[in-house]
């Protein structure tokens, strides 16, 4: 059956098996946990976890698609739940972001302006997608762009920092699972002949593969960095212990 023939089959997107609903809830919960983890870690480390360009794209997506919701069960509710927590993530980023930019004073002094301009740019991009494809298909493609940008930017940020500041295995795992669950969710929707599925094409397949490569690479690199930090901490503790012992003698 061709894609055109499949889409011509009468189908109500709101009629879906329970397992699809459960997977959608899993995506929602995964990202809620991720936002909470980022907020906690930001205040703990006095840093931030989500790169500015990805954060602006992400919150622009949520704002736009709360106002222009896609006709897909549960997703509008998920966006509405994510948005308030994402606002707190933005607050933490603006508060602690300057701590990460001491090497670039121009960026350090202008973080709110940089974020604001980027936010406006991404909002207009999402609105343009809606004008081109309609809210439902636009939300799918915009989410794909946001996720790939987030995965790539997070990996770059981790490599540049060379530190676990602002991140943790919990943050990585909830982000990874919150998106990885989308794959079986979309496969089941496609098999259920849902006409709103738009990723069953080469661009969608490539994007899915890119996500897995980028985010798994992030997890491996984070594990190596954490192992290195623990080794340094142990050696530092041993050095202090020897120094204290020699002073006592």
UniProtKB/TrEMBL annotation:
GO terms for molecular function: lyase activity. Keywords: Membrane, Transmembrane, Transmembrane helix. GO terms for cellular component: membrane. InterPro entries: PaxB-like. Its main location: membrane. Signal peptide: none annotated. It is found in: Membrane. It is a multi-pass membrane protein. The chain crosses the membrane at residues 18-36, 48-68, 74-92, 113-133, 139-158, 170-188, 203-226. Belongs to the paxB family. This is Integral membrane protein. It comes from Aspergillus felis.
